[in-house]
Structure formats: C-alpha cells, structure tokens
C-alpha cells in the first residue's frame, strides 16, 4: 500500500531535523503558525519537562485566548439566563447567545439563523436527527445509508433508530486507501433509503469524502443527506448552502471552541416537520395539561437552559477562525500533512493507515512489532501528545485488520518542528522497544 | 527516559517478542476472555485445573508489550500453584503496581513478576499489566468475561 504519490519532494533530500524552506503554494493565502501559536496559552506549557507537542487535535483542539476570554467575560460580566426575565443582564446574555448563533450562521453560510440549532456537540446532533427525523419519516423496512468510515457517533444512533422502527442500516464500503467506494454507495441507494448520513472528514483516516457529489447523487433520488462535519470544521471552509446538505453537524471543541457546545444546521423544511427532540423549558410557546404548543425554530429543539457561556465562546471561536481564514488554514495544513507523511515514512517499519488522495489533518499509523499503546506512552514522555486506540471507529480498525493505530492529528498551529519532534520520538520508540 | 527503561525492561521486551505459553491448552476445563476497551487489548485464557491446582495455562490474543509480557510471565508463575496461592499472588502483584508512589515497591515473593514495578510510574498502564490477571481470576471463579473497564 503506497502512502503518498510517489513523486519525491525536495524535502526528502534534506537532513532530518533541518527544516527546508516551504514550497510556494500558488495563490493560497498564507498564515504564520509561529505567530498564531502565541494565541494559545496552553501551547507554551511543558509536559514531563519537555515543550508540549500537541498532535491530538482530532480528539480535541486547544483554545485561543479570545475564546477563553469570551467564556470568562460571560461569567464575570453578563451571566444570566436567556429568553426570560426582562432585566439588563438577561438581555445581555441573550444577545451574546443569539449573537453567537448569527456568527455561526455566517461562518457556515446558512440561509437563516433559525436553521442553526445549538447542541452539546456533533454526537447530540446525530441523536437529535435520528430521533426526530426518524420519528417523522422512518418506518419498518426503510433504510438508512452510512459509510464504513463513520465514527461510532454516526453509527450507533442509527442502529438505535433501526432497533426502534425495524428499519435497516446499510453501509457503503471503503477501499484499501480508506476512500469511500462511491459506486457501492450509489448501488445501495434504494427506493427505501430515507436518509444518507456521511462523515465529511474521517477522524480515524483523514479521508475527505466527496460530500458534494454524494449530496447531488442522493438528491437526484430525493433522499436527504446528513453530514457529520466534526472533523471538517477545524480544517476546511464549509458552506452549507453551496453543499446543499440537508443537515450539517459539528462540535465546538474540535474547532478551538469550548466543550459541550456545537451546532446542527438543518434545512427548515425538515426542521419544521420534525417533532421536538426533548421536552422542557424554552422549547414551548404555551403549556397546559390539555395541549402544549411548541416554540418556533430554532428553540423548538433547545429544551432546558442551554450552555450559554459555551455559546458565547463558540461565537468568539468562529470570529477567531474568520480572522485567521479557513482557506489559509486548509492550505497550511495541506502542506504540513504532506511534510508529515514524507517524514513519517522515514521511520523503518512504519505504515500509514489512510492514504486517500483527498486527506485532511490525520496521520494514522502503525509500526511493525510495536503496539500503538506503547508508542503513545513513550512519545508522552517526550511531551508529544498523540492518540492511540481505535479512535471510536472500530469498524475502520476491523476493515484494516488492526486492533488499534497511533494517530497524530494536526491543527493550523502545528509546525514542521512538531513533525520533526514526532519523527525523532518515533526513532526513540524503536530504540526503547528494541 | 530512565522511567521508560524501568517500564520497558529487557525481560518485558523479551516476553513481548516471544511470549511463553502462547497457545490454547488441550483438555482445558476453564477459560475466560479479557478485554480492555480503552486500547483494544484482548486475550483468551485456557487452563486445566485439577484438585484445585493450576496444571496447565496458556493464552492467545493481542495487546501492548506490557499486557502481553504480563500474560506471559503470569502463565509461567501460576503453573503448579493452588487457586488460593494464585489469588494471593495477584493481590501482591496488584499492590506492586498500585502502591503509593512514595513507598518503595516490595518485590518479595513475586519472583520475575517484580520487573513490572516500573508500571507504578505509569498509572494508565496498570490496566494493561493486570488484564491477564483479572481474566485468570474470572476463569478460576468460573466467569467467562473480564474487562478492565
């Protein structure tokens, strides 16, 4: 299995550890990762006495000062409950929360902020749609179509729905490079398919799925598409209007925002016809024991007091990302991923899992004779944080006949020096493990 | 670096590369599965117990160096022991791994198992070192599943 196009970059000719000048990237806006790192206080700390090399971004990302300050400011200055109480603080808190909704709408280019539902994260978004869309539209014998590279959170909610309704879960395979077998997806798309749910960027393999193509195909058969964008949002520009997806879900914490807040974009034509997900305060217009009237969008799907400070933090997050520029982020990470791939392959016995042509951020790998768990422990002592295990994608591990992989996952604040440290650490791993 | 050398001692690396008793025991009358969902380590233990004594024991499975070496050294050290002796040894082994960091580990009576003293500095790896033992404990009690979660 080849990991990269065979053309050798000039980088390969240089001495290990010597950083060559970056190749020119045509017309792409540039960013300075060294300068941007200064926005992230945690990146200045040491771990086990070594400077932190944080390469576990697909697990969760670090937070810039602007986001830390936004949540801090919320609690210090304007904390109150929202949408109720006519006092000044409540008004300010509501402005912060609803203002964040508008910022998120703009960031993903959704037509209307009422189509942006705040949730705990992408997992809750999948559960919301599986539950509510399922209740409205999925019956016994119907089918939900997913791919073999999904995170558990885009598998299990559909399995639960299938158990409840008697619907069937269909799974389109992936090839040895970790790419979706598009023709199989097309073949599995049947008159019984009620929804296609597909990951935008795979967390375990880094594969970028051709979501636009999938959406166009599904729509040609009148089937709506849910896109799990948790791993795409921190790395790529996302435009839900251009994609024309029916649902798009993401988590704040994977894109440099707070934990416990995320969003579900949904076309109002679906959201209006779906029943509420949870009942409680804020999602109602009026309640009596005889008849309860539900609130309008988006609040119909937001029962109970929300993660208001998290919402304010997510608003600051997307503003921060806009200031950096998603195209610049995508361009830098593309360059870094190519450099990381080349350098990792210098390590004897190392094999990269996930070699799709279109990839983002993820370097999943195994080393002959060394279990990923041991790799993780030894790298950690060098201050290098990677994830080892099945990455909540056990079917992907099964597909590649592996119990686990080690995974280095990048963010825009990573540098060539971080990759160099990883490669040096992996040579150390081989030495320790004899 | 020195605590890594403590953890990955030569004996542990040897047993990882060439584990002892890596097989299914013929005529086994006890078996159990062990699974660590966190890292995916899993092993199957088969034993022949006669008159309350472990006559034969073997394991199969996959895991990190610590869990594999631990299973290998465990099978060596429990053969010929009574079930009560095995349980007492597990207790002592567990104490070696989880005792307070400021108290020096007591390797007395542990024989070769003392090489796992270094695990104490790596709390997340304790489960790797004890997976085989939990599985053995369950096999002796007649329970077929062990999990470190």
Word description of this protein:
The complex is a heterodimer of chains A (434) and B (149). Helices cover 37% and strands 15% of the residues of chain A. Chain A has 2 domains: 10-60 and 325-432, Aspartate Aminotransferase, domain 1; 67-323, 3-Layer(aba) Sandwich (Aspartate Aminotransferase, domain 2). In chain A, helix 2 (65-78) packs antiparallel against helix 10 (308-324), helix 4 (122-137) packs parallel to helix 5 and helix 11 (326-344) packs parallel to helix 14. Chain A is of the alpha/beta class and 434 residues long. Chain A has 14 helices and 17 strands. In chain A, the strands form 5 sheets. In chain A, strands 4-10-9-8-7-5-6 form a 7-stranded mixed sheet, sandwiched between helices. Chain A has a 4-stranded antiparallel sheet with strand order 13-14-17-16, covered by helices on one side. Chain A is globular, with a radius of gyration of 22 Å. Chain B is of the alpha+beta class and 149 residues long. Chain B has one domain (2-143): Sufe protein. Chain: A (Alpha-Beta Complex). In chain B, 40% of the residues lie in helices and 20% in strands. Chain B has helices spanning 2-7, 10-17, 65-78, 83-98, 126-141, and strands at 30-36, 41-50, 53-62, 145-147. In chain B, a hairpin with a 2-residue loop joins strand 2 and strand 3 (53-62). The longest helix of chain B is centred in the middle third of the chain and has 16 residues, at 83-98. The model of chain B has no long low-confidence stretch (mean pLDDT 91). Chains A and B meet through helix 12 of A and helix 1, helix 2 and helix 3 of B.
